[in-house]
Design goal:
The chain is mainly beta. It is about 0% helix and about 55% strand. The protein is built from no helices and eleven strands. The strands form two sheets. Strands 2, 4, 5, 6, 9, 10 and 11 form a seven-stranded mixed β-sheet that branches. Strands 1-3-8-7 form a four-stranded antiparallel β-sheet, with no helix packed on it. About 35% of the residues are buried.
Amino acid sequence: QVQLVESGGGSVQAGGSLRLSCAASGRIVNYYCMGWFRQAPGKEREGVAVTGGGSIIYGDSVKGRFTASRDNAKKTLYLQMNSLKPEDTAIYYCAFKRGGTCHTLLETDFSSWGQGTQVTVSS
């Protein structure tokens, strides 16, 4: 089992930036995927970005503004969020997937989840 601990959430004005981090621990295999999902009140959870297996994919709503990366030595996933908009306000979750393809934004494909961190963007 993999445990995920997130940090970096907070409040920011529209147009600002935030950087989220997610540190993984536990049984981590050589090949894995890590991704970011978010959920706003009254809305479905949506995929933000997934990295691993030589690929990085993004949800349409964040392309060109968000950048995901990972440090395999530190077993940490990052999400750099620039040009933030009020509609980015949500709880952001880190997720882990063992092997297989990393080219997926489907939450059901991920087996471990972080506690979530709140991101609030004001106009």
